[in-house]
Amino acid sequence: MGEKVEVCSLGKERGANRFLRIFRFYKFLFASALRVDAVFFHMCPEYVLAGALVFKILHKPIGFWYAHGKVSLKLKIAEKLSDKIFTSSPEGFRLKSNKIIITGQGIDTGKFQIKTASNSARFKIISVGRIAPIKHHEILVETADILNKSGLEFEVRIAGAPILEKDKTYFESLKKLIKEKNLEDKIFFNGSVSYRNISDFYHNGDLLVNLSQTGSMDKVVLEAMSCGIPVLNSNEAYFSVLPQKYLTSNNPKEVADKIEYFIKNKVNRAPELRDIVIKNHSLDNLVSKIISSL
User: Do residues 135 and 90 share a domain?
Assistant: First the structure.
């Protein structure tokens, strides 16, 4: 792998200021521009704006991956500068363009495989992602309150941590809400889980609930599906992908009713969901589509 991949950090993780990061960006860009056949920008339209001119002059094709519901002025300009635009779903790139190629996501189906479910007496509901308002964890808490009052045996495990200050404030509000509803013995925060260990976290769950509404395909849903874990999802990017029983609104009562179905019918593995990932969202398929297009 080392012969094929070179990683050059701009130094943000070591505290490099904005000026130094810009300097390093152009240093790496000019050092590599002549020896590459194409350039592939990932998610950040500002990188396209900063580097496209160099590759245009050198007549090197410019590929740009973007998968998010947000449309900004930077994105509109990046669309004009790119030769090919790759996205996971139609909802992931919301500008009209004849450059768009729908690739699906890239899930490592070798890493995320089906394993036998645990025999825990409690039905385990899991959630994966940054602790942030956009993830709507408060709806999951309200849902847990409804399930608890119904006398169902379950627990909720949330993998993720707050990053921004507003996330930390939101996290405190969640803990307060959990305490107010006497759900401390039902809802647990596992903190950040590394990519190396995340498949084990999925395997220990019976149902992944994702209430984010970013408008793009959240990879954690597909990773869980690849593990054969049933999912319950409110993101519109999945509305044309998943059967109806795996979809929900963000209304706590509807979410609770859907979860109750999985609990009472002892549905904790769904091999058909892995088939969807293998067919449309495998890493091998994604890489092949990008390389052949560039």
Answer: no
